[in-house]
Specification:
Number of helices: 6
Strand order of the largest sheet: 1-5-4
Shape: elongated
Oligomer: single chain
Number of strands: 5
Radius of gyration: 23 Å
Helix content: 40-55%
Strand content: 15-25%
Distance between the termini: 31 Å
Length: 203
C-alpha cells in the first residue's frame, strides 16, 4: 500500500459496489451523492503506437481503437458532494462541447467554401477554420490537462494470474477520503484475521 496522501489502492469490485465510507473523494466533506466513473489504463507499450498519429486521420482513429481495445478498465461509483459532482460535470462536458463545436465549425467552413467563391464567404470559411482550431485546442487542453487536475483519476492494474479482480489505484483524491478508506480497509483486515484465527488462539 502506497503512502501518498492523494492516492489509495482499492479493488475494482469495491469500486463497482460503491464500497466506500461516505466521504467526498474530492473535498473530504460528508458525501451527498454517488457519481459513476469509468477509468481505463492502457499498457505502457501502447504509447509506442503514437507514431500512427503521423499517418493523419486514419492513424488517429487506429491509435484510438487500439488504445481502447488493450486498456485495463474499471467502472464504479465514488462518493461526492453535490458541488463536486457539478464540478466533474462541467470539467467533462465543457471540453467535449468545445471539441464538438470545433469540428462543427470546420464542417461549416467546408460547406461555405464549396458552395460559393464569394470573398465574403471565403472570409467566413477562414474565420470558421480559425475558430474551430481554437475550440479544438481549448477542448484538448481542458480534456487532457484541466480535467485530470480537477477530477479523480485512477491507474487500473492488470489482474494477477488466477484472479478475476484487479487493483485500482485512485489518484488525485482528497487526503481525508484516503484516510477514511485506509481505516476501513484496516478494520476489515482485523475482522478477517479475528474470524480466521483458530479457536485455541481466540481464547
Amino acid at each position: 500500500m502506497i503512502n501518498r496522501s492523494d492516492r489509495v489502492q482499492i479493488w475494482a469490485s469495491q469500486l463497482w459496489a460503491n464500497d466506500f465510507p461516505p466521504v467526498c473523494a474530492m473535498t473530504g466533506r460528508p458525501a451527498e451523492t454517488w457519481r459513476k466513473f469509468k477509468f481505463s489504463t492502457p499498457p505502457d507499450w501502447a504509447y509506442a503506437l503514437l507514431a500512427l498519429v503521423c499517418l493523419g486521420g486514419l492513424g488517429v482513429i487506429a491509435f484510438a481503437v487500439v488504445m481502447a481495445l488493450v486498456a485495463q478498465r474499471a467502472t464504479g461509483f465514488l462518493p461526492l458532494t453535490k458541488a463536486s459532482s457539478s464540478t466533474v460535470t462541467l470539467a467533462t462536458w465543457i471540453p467535449s462541447g468545445l471539441l464538438i463545436g470545433g469540428f462543427v465549425l470546420w464542417l461549416l467552413a467546408l460547406v461555405v467554401a464549396l458552395s460559393t467563391n464569394d470573398s465574403t464567404a471565403s472570409a467566413v470559411a477562414g474565420w470558421s477554420v480559425f475558430l474551430g482550431l481554437l475550440f479544438i485546442i481549448a477542448g484538448l487542453i481542458g480534456r487532457l490537462v484541466v480535467k485530470p487536475l480537477i477530477c479523480p483519476r485512477a491507474k487500473v492494474m492488470e489482474a494477477a494470474p488466477g484472479q478475476n479482480d484487479r487493483i485500482v489505484e485512485l489518484r488525485n483524491v482528497n487526503a481525508a477520503f484516503v484516510m477514511a478508506v485506509r481505516q476501513s480497509q484496516q478494520a476489515r483486515a482485523a475482522q478477517f484475521a479475528q474470524a480466521t484465527r483458530p479457536p485455541l488462539m481466540q481464547q
